[in-house]
Amino acid sequence: MNKQGTKFTPWTWKATGAACSFSGGILAALIGSVLTASTWILGAAAHPWVRGLGTVFLILTIPLLILAGYCMDWMERDRKKSDVAESINRERRRILH
Fold it and tell me: Is the full-model pTM beyond 0.85?
């Protein structure tokens, strides 16, 4: 009897890093946009630190999204390696039997 299944690991640290980085990047972009827009509406003189904080959040968006992409690529690369190793092992078992 040939039982083939897929190895399903829902939460690895790579998946967690990708999810947190992606949601953090989106959240940073939203917060940065709201803070920057509020300085346009209220004026930068009302709260001078809000403008700087909005800029920091907008700049943080880029590295967080890059990190999320890196983690997703890493997950995909590891899955392809395990698929190749699984097919090699399957071929070896077929030859031996």
Answer: no
> Is 7 a domain residue?
no
State the Cα angle at 85 between 84 and 88, rounded to 5°.
90
Secondary structure tally for the chain: helices H, strands E: 2, 0
Place of tokens 């959040």: 57
Is position 61 within any domain? Answer: yes
Give the number of domains in the chain.
1
Model confidence pLDDT, tens digit, residues 72-91: 898 888 776 666 666 666 66
Report pLDDT digits (tens) over 22-37. Answer: 999 999 999 999 999 9
